[in-house]
Amino acid sequence: MSFADNLQFIRKQKGISQEGLAEILHVTRQAVSKWEQGLAYPGTVKIIEISNYFKVSIDYLLKE
Prior knowledge:
Blueprint: H1 3-13, H2 18-25, H3 29-37, H4 44-54, H5 58-62
Helix pairs in contact: 2-3
């Protein structure tokens, strides 16, 4: 699975909406949507924040 797939999977597994995740990360819902569609990628700081929030490794998020 790609970063986009992994992010969408874990977000849905935890029951958080795109809007909810966007608020937590201080980004727009559209940014989260683009990440999940594979149209854009978050910066390093946001990847670390996502990893910390969901309590998963960065490897889990980024590796296919």
